[in-house]
């Protein structure tokens, strides 16, 4: 049986989950960093 043409060989579901997790962690880091920056500008210690 032939493989589907839209699937790239060697690109597994595990790799997709890893990329997705990386993006989620990066976005969370940006949001937390922006929140800390805004908090430090509004209420300097």
Question: What would you note in describing this structure?
Answer:
The protein is an all-alpha fold and 45 residues long. The protein has one domain (12-45). 67% of the residues lie in helices and 0% in strands. The chain contains one helix and no strands. The longest helix is centred in the middle third of the chain and has 30 residues, at 13-42. The mean pLDDT is 85.
Compute the number of strand runs.
0
Structural class: mainly alpha
| Amino- and carboxy-terminal Cα gap | 67 Å
Helix content: 55-70%
Question: What is the overall shape?
Answer: rod-shaped
SSE layout and pairing:
Blueprint: H1 13-42
Question: Can you summarize this structure?
Answer:
The protein is mostly helical and 45 residues long. Helices cover 67% and strands 0% of the residues.
